[in-house]
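Aim 2 progress update. The chain analyzed this quarter is reproduced below.
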Amino acid sequence: MIKRHIAHMLPGVMMLLLVSNSVFAESIEVTFAYIGQADPNPLLGVQQGLDEANLQGQFLNQRYKLDIISNENMSKNDYSKYIAILTSVDSDTFTKLTESLPDMPIFNLSLKDDNLRTSCIRNALHIIPSNSMISDAVKQWKMKKAESDANAYAWHPDFVKFAARDLNKRFKKSANVEMNDYSWAGWAAVKMTSDTVARTNITDPAKLLTYLRTELIFDGQKGSDMNFRETGQLRQPMLLVENNNIVAEAPVRGIAKPPTLDSLGTLNCQK
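Predicted structure tokens:
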């Protein structure tokens, strides 16, 4: 009876501790910049991530903001106040951004080009899976189900495992559309950043970049510990979808060899 009573009290005690600690914690304000094209999905995901970061931040005295920068104003904008740049742009624009802001984390939320990975741009963080990751996932599945016409995706609105159901529900409620690969990528970029800030109090872009490239362990509601390769690509499981139904996950069990996440996509830089 006593143990049950204590267990019942623990969530309330933890919340009180968080609120108490936030009173004494130094106030932190974190601002992202978003540069994007016509597709609204990455931005919707970013906004979902910000809403959740600010909900958590209430208890940690942290606030998260977003500036949306047009392509026309991109080259003349002052980026000194941002912790990271979130992008859904063309390949040339992305490359120019990484070159002009070498110590700033530049998140890629939409480009699947393999050459952006093999060129190993030191400040590029590719959340969206590459073309080679997609093709490797499909190849693995066809080794098991040769007749399948499935394709591989980073996310699907019917994914329910690992609290994915809750994320899909939250997103659908706030955005009024279903979460897809690009909105998941936007959410994930903000989530891994805000979790890092909450855990470490890092607000310097260069230090954040180093942490994300070398120390990140991120779940992302996919059930695997994800981190970045030397190529800047986020290691991650993929969903195999046929006729809009999830039929399997990749790495495909029994086909992929350990370490299984490294069976998807290019691992190394061009020599």
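The longest strand covers residues 28-36. The domain at 27-263 is CATH 3.40.50.2300 (Rossmann fold). These observations will guide the mutagenesis experiments scheduled for the next reporting period.
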